[in-house]
Design goal:
Layout lengths: L3 H12 L4 H10 L18 E3 L2 E3 L1 H12 L1 H7 L2 H13 L11
Antiparallel strand pairs: 1-2
Helix pairs in contact: 3-4, 3-5
The structure holds zinc ion (ZN).
């Protein structure tokens, strides 16, 4: 039985196509580092789940802007950054089912 906090975290992850076990698997695989910028997190800081990898909070904000306000994002980020973020978001469609890791 999961603790209440873990239960809620698991619920939130599942809504986004993940699970706690998959999160832990990816966290270990990325050594606790952001998939996009490669920065490691301070102990205890959560990375945000994306089906294609875990990202730090600043990167998650950038991805959010690229997804929801692409015109503004084009003015703010460099072409290289934009290309990387779009690639990251695109790949999620090809990601195999989260069931693989549960
Ligand atoms: Zn990052």
């Amino acid at each position: 039985m999961l603790h209440n906090r873990e239960y809620r975290k698991n619920y939130n992850l599942r809504r986004r196509g993940g699970s706690l076990s998959r999160y832990r698997y990816m966290y270990a695989e990325q050594n606790g580092k952001c998939k996009l910028c490669g920065k490691s997190q301070n102990a205890g800081r959560a990375l945000t789940f994306y089906p294609n990898g875990l990202v730090c909070v600043p990167c998650a904000c950038r991805l959010h802007l690229v997804q929801h306000d692409p015109d503004r994002a084009e003015h703010i980020y460099s072409t290289n950054d934009l290309a990387r973020m779009k690639e990251f978001l695109k790949k999620r469609l090809d990601t195999p089912s989260a069931m693989m890791y549960t």
